Amino acid sequence: MAAATTALAGRVLVYGGRGALGATIVQHFKTQGWWVGAIDLQANDQAHGNVVVSSRTSLVEQEKEIVAGVKGLLAESKLDAILCVAGGWAGGSAAAADFIANTDLCVTQSLWSSVIAARLASLFLKDGGLLTLTGAGAAKDPTPGMIGYGMVKAAVHHLVRSLGDPKGGLPADAFALAILPVTLDTPMNRKWMPKADHTTWTPLDTGSKCLRLLVHGNAPLVTGTQNVILEGWVVVDTPV
């Protein structure tokens, strides 16, 4: 007699699934019975499937590579959620010697991943599914000490609001949300800010739990609201 198979809780794709937050999300959803795919520069061996990004010089080529990889992972299946947590931080005012280089880095790390995630959602997300992109609370105000970073994150906020419009291109009844963490408790943040009050930072497991609440539709989101506080995270919610 064939062994009984356990029904999947759902299918989720984590963009940035090898980073500190992404790896935590992959593990969290996997333990909850989800099929989990990951996209990153390196594979996450905890994921059920990986798309390893090799093209880093062109947004067009990177999109082609990732779309083909995701199509290969899913076959005919659709995703319940795409959670984009890829990105990084780089500072500098316009007078900084590395201003242009750091702005370019922010664009490739955070904006490319966000627009490609939006494209993936248009192709592979279920009706009523969820796309989350990662913005930044700081980008709601001027960011003179990190202009490139703030500019890119503000663009992500705009992207989410545009995707929330019925003409934004997402599947029927899908949601586009931006999570706006302030400071995540990651090893790199602790390295660069050793004297900060780490007790005020958002733990990575809290972020994973918040995202699962969003995916299940159990989070206290109110249609049309902009700054919902959810366990230490700020969420900009834009329903389709």
Helix and strand layout, with pairings?
Blueprint: E1 11-15, H1 20-31, E2 35-40, E3 49-52, H2 59-74, E4 79-84, H3 99-124, E5 125-134, H4 147-163, E6 175-180, H5 187-192, H6 204-216, E7 228-230, E8 233-239
Parallel strand pairs: 1-2, 1-4, 2-3, 4-5, 5-6
Antiparallel strand pairs: 6-8, 7-8
Helix pairs in contact: 1-6, 2-3, 3-4
- Average pLDDT, rounded to a whole number, is 85
Query: What's the architecture, going by CATH?
Result: 3-Layer(aba) Sandwich
Specify Rg, calculated over alpha carbons. 17 Å
Number of strands: 8
Major β-sheet annotation? 8 strands, mixed
- Estimate what percentage of residues fall within beta strands: 15-25%
The run of helices and strands is EHEEHEHEHEHHEE
| Helical content band | 25-40%
Query: Please, what is the oligomeric state?
Result: single chain
CATH class: Alpha Beta
Distance between the termini: 46 Å
Report strand order across the widest sheet. 3-2-1-4-5-6-8-7
Catalytic activity: 5,6,7,8-tetrahydropteridine + NAD(+) = 6,7-dihydropteridine + NADH + H(+); 5,6,7,8-tetrahydropteridine + NADP(+) = 6,7-dihydropteridine + NADPH + H(+)
GO molecular function: 6,7-dihydropteridine reductase activity; NADH binding; NADPH binding
Pfam families: adh_short (PF00106)
Keywords: NADP, Oxidoreductase, Tetrahydrobiopterin biosynthesis
